[in-house]
Specification:
The chain has about 800 residues and is of the alpha+beta class. The chain contains 24 helices and 28 strands.
Length: about 800
């Protein structure tokens, strides 16, 4: 029986063995065939044709040797989609040429705009784009969104997402996100040599940036279309990943994937051609990435992290080149992923393996912050922006700065410029922490310049800081940002301005800095004060309270510094009496007050030796307890009776002819004979009304009527405009306020006299013309001096 069983098992085992050999051979053959097909499909997906969609007038597009030629004649926009994710929208009447450096994936996109308007969206791709508009001007931008318009001799470059650069006359101007630049082509052609000599700060004065007009219909239309396109790209990629499935099992139960993995291993081991084996080995590495992508789609974070780590390890160990077609393809395909997208981790894993320079890597991190600023949900944007800024900070604090060289000097300047633009667009990011980062970039940039160029550039940086302080002040006044975090940023900015003052030797520039700081004196003093440190309410209210307290303290100090008497009383009593006099007398409009203090602690009477009310003199004894004035002399006229504090201003206004009491009110204890000259009163009223009509402001203390008998009124200081547009000057005018003479304007070049007589109506224009001419001459002289000192970088 045993033998029978053995005999019966032998043939079965042989059959099974033969079947196994045949099956194995079949598997190997099938595996090789399958792998070739799979790898071919993967490469085919990576190497698609450039033009993947066309919407609009198809006849407007013709193929050329270099790419595509577009001439839109219909009334509808033409839309081209390249490499699945790049979108070009041509407005009616637009003519352009489109070409690219490499097809798989599309890279080095070149556009030649002849006329019209072109919207370029490459933010979901990795290609850089170069745009030419005639022989003189080109625009370059990394992945982003740019609106270009060429017509009537003008090129408009608007940066909608990320930043663009305009290059002409061997100079580059950065166009940050949400800004637009208008270039007059004739001006560039006419002034190429002069423009080539300008430093960056002067160049942007010649071609100032404007705020992007987001209400423009073309912009609104394209923004909506871009949002829909971005969603389509995300869904399409996710569907492709889900349909393709994982290349390895996520948790071991996927038999098909396990079988696929076995086939790959067997096929790879039986591939003897070195080149093909390397190709298959590289493609197998990307299977880890494909599996991670699938895990992200199905929400398996643990498996995604596992396979992303494996992908990075294998790719690094194998030395997969950043230029490898598959690497480039995945980098382009994952470019759409934003910080909150499921695929962002995968995008970062691929980006780590790039061969980009330190500056380029920094630019990518910066763009992540820009993307976070428009990400959804809006409630988490600030958090995402802050996280992005911290990643940027860590990169700069690492080995980044030490890896830079002389060739990076201009890139550092442009990066600092775009960094400051971001802070202005997102004021909540203006903190000491993030300002310090920009300061480091600027310091490294300055180290690469010659001393003369470094001083010139430092002036630009200081001007930017002053501008930022004014910007923050305006934001605080509008209650758009919190004071305490902003206060620390302001203290940092002011400290940096103070720190570099010794660098500047030009008296004119130091005068400019001082004048700018003087305009901000009250604001900066509050920021530095203990009151500012404790402020936690409304900024404007807290500042007003502080300013009033400072003004009051200053008045008390002035009173005490010029006061006579009071030597026998305590310092506390001296200050107490001065405070009472200051509050009461300044409160009703008296100025230039000089007092004599009593010599007894108990005596409440202070002698008002002299004071002025609207240029009229005043003296009296003031009982600070009873609030009563006695022995009053006003405008040289003695008043027989005492006057209470609440009635004094009324008395003086009536005396000056500026107020008429209502009928029935007794004036016996308030009013004496009005001794004011009718001629003076008429002249004063006429002048005040005339100056108000032309926008000139004059304080009473600067109005001199001493030569009124000669029909001349001297105005020692007058003002036109507000804030940065303030113009200060002095002049003489006749009593009828009709003719101006002896005008002298304060300018950056010092006081400039105007030896002419003209009508009051001409005064504002004369002042502005002289001021602007002085400013222009000063800038021209400064530029000549710098050119004579030596060539840049010497």
């Amino acid at each position: 029986m045993e033998q029978l069983q053995k005999n019966s098992q032998g043939p079965d085992r042989r059959k099974i063995f033969r079947f196994g050999v045949v099956a194995t051979a079949f598997i190997l053959l099938a595996g090789g065939y399958f792998m070739d097909g799979f790898f071919s499909a993967k490469v085919q997906y990576a190497q698609s044709s450039a033009l993947t969609a066309l919407a609009g007038e198809s006849a407007a597009v013709t193929e050329t040797e270099r790419g595509l030629s577009v001439a839109v004649t219909s009334q509808e926009p033409l839309v081209l989609t390249l490499d699945r994710t790049i979108v070009l929208r041509f407005s009616p009447g637009t003519k352009a040429e489109v070409s690219w450096e490499r097809l798989s994936p599309l890279d080095g996109l070149n556009l030649e705009l002849t006329a019209g308007r072109l919207w370029v969206n490459t933010q979901n791709h990795t290609t850089s784009t170069n745009v030419t508009a005639g022989p003189m001007v080109s625009a370059l931008f990394e992945p982003g969104v740019v609106d270009l318009q060429l017509g009537e001799g003008k090129l408009l470059i608007a940066s909608v997402r990320h930043d663009a650069r305009a290059t002409f006359a061997n100079k580059t101007i950065l166009v940050p996100q949400d800004r637009q630049l208008s270039l007059l082509l004739a001006k560039i052609q006419r002034s190429q040599k002069e423009l080539a000599q300008l430093h960056y700060d002067k160049l942007i004065k010649e071609f100032p940036l404007d705020v992007l007009d987001k209400s423009d219909p073309w912009t609104s239309y394209n923004t909506r279309e871009d949002e829909a396109h971005a969603q389509k790209v995300r869904l399409s990629f996710a569907d492709h990943v889900r349909t393709s499935g994982p290349r390895f099992p996520l948790s071991g139960e996927n038999l098909l994937s396990s079988f696929e993995g076995v086939l790959k291993s067997i096929s790879l081991s039986l591939t003897f051609d070195g080149k093909k084996r390397l190709e298959r080995s590289t493609q197998t590495i990307f299977d880890y990435l494909d599996t991670a992508l699938y895990a992200l789609v199905v929400g398996n974070q643990r498996a995604a992290d596992l396979f992303l780590n494996r992908f990075n390890q294998e790719a690094t160990a194998a030395g997969v080149a950043p230029s490898d077609p598959l690497m480039a393809s995945y980098r382009a395909r994952l470019a759409f992923a934003q910080p909150r997208d499921a695929f962002f981790k995968a995008r970062e894993a691929v980006r780590k393996l790039s061969a980009d320079t330190s500056i380029k890597k920094l630019g990518r991190l910066f763009n992540d912050v820009l993307d976070a600023a428009v990400s959804d949900p809006a409630t988490e944007r600030n958090e995402q922006m802050t996280l992005g800024m911290r990643r940027l900070t860590q990169a700069i604090d690492g080995s980044f700065l030490s890896s830079l060289g002389q060739a990076d000097a201009e890139e550092l300047l442009l990066f600092s410029t775009r960094y400051m633009s971001l802070l202005r667009n997102q004021p909540m990011l203006i903190t000491e922490e993030f300002l310090t980062v920009n300061e480091k970039l600027q310091e490294v940039h300055l180290n690469f310049l010659s001393r003369a160029d470094a001083v010139d550039r430092q002036q630009y940086f200081v001007s930017e800081k002053l501008s930022l302080i004014k910007f923050l002040k305006a934001q605080l006044e509008a209650e758009k940002i919190d004071f305490q975090p902003t206060r620390r940023a302001l203290l940092y900015l002011v400290s940096r301005i103070d720190a570099v003052r010794p660098v500047f030797s030009e008296a004119a520039y130091l005068t400019y800095v001082d004048s700018q700081l003087m305009q901000l004196a009250d604001f900066i003093a509050f920021v530095r004060s203990p009151e500012g440190e404790q402020a936690n309410g409304s900024f404007t209210e807290e500042l007003d309270v502080y300013k009033k307290a400072v003004e009051e303290a200053q008045k008390i100090r002035e009173l005490l510094s010029s006061a006579d008497g009071g030597g026998a009383i305590s310092p506390f009593r001296r200050e107490e009496l001065a405070a009472e006099v200051s509050k009461d007398l300044y409160g009703i409009g008296l100025k230039d007050i000089k007092v004599q203090l009593p010599d007894s602690e108990q005596n409440p009477v202070v002698r008002i030796v002299t004071a002025k009310f609207e240029s009229a003199t005043f003296s009296a004894n003031y009982d600070t307890n009873r609030k009563l004035f006695s022995e009053v002399v006003f405008r040289g006229q003695e008043v027989g009776n005492s006057i209470r504090l609440e009635n004094l201003k009324t008395y003086m206004l009536v005396t000056l002819g500026k107020l008429v009491l209502k009928d029935g009110k007794t004036t016996e204890t308030l009013v004496e004979q009005d001794a004011q000259s009718d001629f003076e009163r008429v002249a004063h009223i006429t002048l005040a009304n005339a100056l108000a009509r032309v926008g000139v402001k004059v304080e009473e203390q600067y109005l001199d009527l001493s030569d009124l008998a000669s029909d001349v009124i001297h105005i020692r200081l007058a003002r036109l405009g507000e804030g940065e547009s303030t113009r200060l000057f002095s002049f003489d005018i006749d009593s009828k306020a009709s003719r101006v003479s002896r005008l002298e304007i304060q300018t950056v070049a010092g006081p400039i006299p105007v030896n002419d007589t003209f009508s009051l109506a001409e005064l504002p224009n004369r002042v502005e013309q002289v001021y602007q001419r002085a400013l222009f001459e000063k800038e021209k002289d400064d530029e000549v001096k710098r050119l004579l000192q030596g060539t840049p970088g010497a």
